[in-house]
Write a structure and sequence with these properties.
Blueprint lengths: L25 E7 L3 H12 L4 E4 L8 H4 L3 E2 L7 H8 L1 H12 L1 H12 L5 E2 L3 E5 L2 H16 L4 E4 L1 H8 L6 E5 L3 E3 L1 H14 L3 E3 L4 E7 L2 E6 L4 E9 L10 H4 L3 E10 L15 E4 L5 E5 L5 E6 L12 H10 L8 E11 L6 E6 L2 E5 L5 H18 L21 H19 L1
Helix pairs in contact: 1-8, 1-11, 3-4, 5-11
């Protein structure tokens, strides 16, 4: 359902054509979903010599991969010491090494493949507005410095200089991070995956997924069928009735975003060095500059599709809280998309039936995480060796009382927003 007013992301689409084709007969891998995860896996699988067919329900970039804020953040929601306590010494350190390099993978791919993707790698700031948030930033800084990461703890003067924003007491700077044009990245991934030999069709939802002997028979709305030795269900926040238990294992939220008109030169003090920012509020906001000088800011929105531009009003209030001087700058773009979270805030790898694979749960790290997962998932498809995966394959478990989660989340968002307002 589309709202009765313009809703479109600010991101530019590349002009390079993408060759679409459908592979009749049997293939080694069927990928359902042409986002970062699906296309990265398709690219690496095709380059390993596997036959691959990607099937996308909508247009390239219509899901989370094309409508996110374009922040490329290494690491995971949890810090290294927590990961070791959860996974043990060996598996925890393997996951930390993987997570530490996710931004390297993205920027390395852009450079190596000469992708038509605007990008800046100046770092990411996690901004602290309270003493408790600043203490947490200090813990994150300590743990990643122990891993040899290029990070720093910012004081109040330093964060004010880098962001130009009001109200922060300090923060955590991760110089490994940066920003990209997210829509351009997913389009360019589609282009190089098809050039590597992967088949791709769009705007044709998968409607059936049936185990057929040692393979999977995949059918689409248009009547196409393909058999795959393996299937990667790369649908994440857009998982639905095809595998209900996957959808029931995830909590999805709407992320709303706004973009200003290009800012006049007098506002060049805002993110002057090009960093991206997320704050440490309970209902966080995140923001960055675009190549043409706009400020893009995003955060949680209603659990329903927007009904009017008022559904973005909380973001405009956050923008003016941080940058009161922008109160007269018009908003040029408003858009939204769906993101998936897991109950433990960790990414999950599942194989509920032989040959049926999925990776889900991004927690704000989707670009680096899902692009980076493509190569090990492709290696697993090729070899069957779970040792190539950075995460253990875990059982697929639905969240109890999942149908009521949206009601509970909406109540939590309202309460947390109230608490954040008190702390401002």
């Amino acid at each position: 359902m589309h709202p009765p007013f313009p809703v479109s992301p600010v991101w530019r689409r590349p002009v390079s054509p993408i060759a679409c084709r459908f592979s009749e007969g049997d293939v080694d891998l069927v990928v359902v979903g042409a986002g970062y995860q699906g296309l990265s896996t398709a690219l690496h699988a095709a380059r390993l010599g596997l036959s691959v067919q990607v099937i996308e329900a909508g247009e390239i970039g219509a899901g989370a991969s094309g409508v996110n804020g374009g922040q490329v953040i290494p690491g995971l929601k949890q810090d290294p010491e927590t990961l070791i306590s959860l996974f043990g010494e060996e598996a925890g350190k393997r996951l930390i090494r993987f997570a530490a390099k996710t931004a390297d993978v993205v920027y390395g791919l852009i450079g190596r493949e000469e992708l038509d993707v605007e990008h800046v790698r100046s770092g990411w700031i996690q901004a602290a507005h309270t003493e408790a948030a600043l203490e947490a930033a200090g813990q994150r800084n300590r743990q990643w410095r122990a891993q040899g990461a290029d990070v720093a703890l910012l004081n109040q003067a330093e964060i004010a200089l880098l962001t130009g924003a009001e109200g922060y007491r300090g923060g955590f700077l991760d110089r490994r991070a940066g920003v990209v044009n997210p829509l351009a990245l997913v389009h360019e991934l589609a282009r190089i995956a098809t050039e590597a030999g992967a088949g791709l069709v769009t705007e044709d939802p998968v409607t059936s997924l049936v185990r057929d002997g040692t393979s999977w028979r995949v059918g689409t709305k248009s009547g196409r069928f393909v058999r795959g030795r393996k299937v990667l269900l790369a649908t994440n926040a857009y998982s639905g009735p095809l595998l209900p238990k996957l959808a029931q294992s995830l909590v999805w939220l709407h992320s709303f975003q706004i973009a200003t008109e290009p800012l006049p030169a007098e506002f060049d003090i805002i993110l002057a060095s090009g960093q991206a920012v997320s704050d440490r509020r309970r209902i966080l906001v995140y923001y960055r500059r675009t190549p043409d000088g706009r400020l893009v800011l995003g955060g949680r929105g209603p659990m329903r599709p927007p009904r009017s531009t008022e559904d973005w009003a909380h973001l405009e209030r956050a923008l003016h809280r941080l940058y009161p001087m922008l109160s007269g700058i018009p908003i040029s773009h408003r858009w939204f998309g769906r993101v998936a979270m897991t109950s433990d805030h960790l990414p999950h790898l599942h194989e509920p039936q032989p040959g049926l694979l999925m990776a889900a749960g991004c927690q704000g790290r989707g670009i680096g995480l899902m692009v980076s997962l493509g190569e090990p998932i492709a290696q697993y498809v090729a070899t069957g060796d779970p040792g190539v995966l950075p995460l253990p394959i875990s059982p697929l478990r639905g969240i109890p009382l999942h149908p009521f989660r949206r009601i509970g989340i909406a109540a939590h968002v309202a309460w947390y927003r109230l608490l954040d307002g008190v702390e401002r």
